[in-house]
Amino acid sequence: MRKFVAADKFFLESHVENKGYLEIIDGKFGHYYQSLPDEEVTVIDQSGKWIAPGLVDTHIHGFKNHDVMDNDAQGINEMSEGLLSCGVTSFLPTTLTSSKEHLKDVAQMLGEVKDKVTGAKIQGIYFEGPFFTEEHKGAQNSSYFSDPDIDTFHEWQEASGGIIKKIALAPERTGVEAFVKQVSDEGVVVSLGHSDATFQQASAAVEAGGSVFVHAYNGMSGLNHREPGMVGALLTLHDVYAELICDGYHVHPKAADLAVQKVGHDHVALITDCMMAGGMPDGDYVLGEFPVVVKDGTARMQEGNLAGSILQLKEGVKNVVDWNIATPEQAVMMGSLVPAVSSNIDDTCGKIRKDRAADFIVLNPDMTLAATYLDGQERYHA
């Protein structure tokens, strides 16, 4: 018997449709129809609600008391299960700066667990570092910082089974342009951040193939009228993507609005940068090797600096609508398709397309999450 989802609105790949029916065939998307066929069918009734592609979190360090750097396969699975409550159906587990050996071990573990997790799907790995600089180190351990080295990267990539999709670095490090050109040619996205680069240095890295700015405004040289810096490059260079943490703490809503206006809704990827305290009560936690205090909606290091976030991606999507930065359609795109495109994983996630895995979310008209579906099956209900 054919199965359909009925809803008031569908955020399809190229446009939005109002009331209708989306067919689910053996866990995959079928076509959208305005009316049901004249035969007996099964209908999942989501009347009054909206259907959108599952969210894609391409920058996330942990969740539900688990950290990617714990190098714990069971913890990664529990993280993937927990992310379904955030509306996330695909993600890139994100590393932190650490020793070459530990990063290799984590890469190998993630490669081995990639196709075994039972919740949100691992679509690859994001290496955030370790090729950063001291001035904007954030919660990264600067004792491990170094210039980019292609042989070291290849060791990590081989250990992972070839699933490192993105790596972040600071444009001012020695040897950046050659490294960026090489890994870009190998299909790996290069993002720029934790950097005190000048506008010229950032521009050179983009010309070499860098395409994403890590958590816009945070961990980067600010805009000055005599030296535009990393923020100036982000706001003025063409065809670059900006990661944006829309929790209201990392970036003021007006600054977020400015980035969206300058870069474009189709080039802003909503991320969480969430650490292990996501989905957990206030208290003491660890990010990488640093103690972190979670209180009043933020995660901070002992000296008071922000240390990742506890944001859930469904909240970031809702916030940009509530802040009048985006329409619901644009917000959904910024939380699903744009992260996927900017990380070169849109061949497997980020959109509702026939014959793709039926990973989708059900939204209420106020942009709150009602349910999460994976392979056509409801896996979370609010």
Question: Could you explain the architecture of this structure?
Answer:
- Helix 4 (176-185) runs parallel beside helix 5 and helix 5 crosses helix 6.
- The protein has 382 residues and is α/β, with parallel strands linked by helices.
- Helix content is 26%, strand content 30%.
- A 7-stranded mixed sheet has the order 3-2-1-4-19-20-21, with no helix packed on it. The protein has a 6-stranded parallel sheet with strand order 10-11-12-13-14-15.
- The two termini are 28 Å apart.
Could you give a short description of this structure?
With 382 residues, the protein is an alpha/beta fold. It has helices at 73-83, 100-113, 150-160, 176-185, 199-208, 229-236, 253-263, 313-322, 328-335, 337-342, and strands at residues 2-11, 16-25, 28-33, 41-53, 55-60, 62-63, 66-67, 88-93, 121-122, 125-131, 164-169, 189-192, 212-213, 241-245, 268-271, 283-287, 290-295, 298-301, 360-363, 369-374, 377-381. The longest helix is centred in the N-terminal third of the chain and has 14 residues, at 100-113.
Q: Strand order of the main beta sheet, please?
A: 3-2-1-4-19-20-21
Uncertain stretches: none
Counting copies of identical and different chains, the oligomeric state is single chain
Q: Which bin fits the share of residues in helices?
A: 25-40%
Euclidean distance between termini CA atoms: 28 Å
Strand content: 25-35%
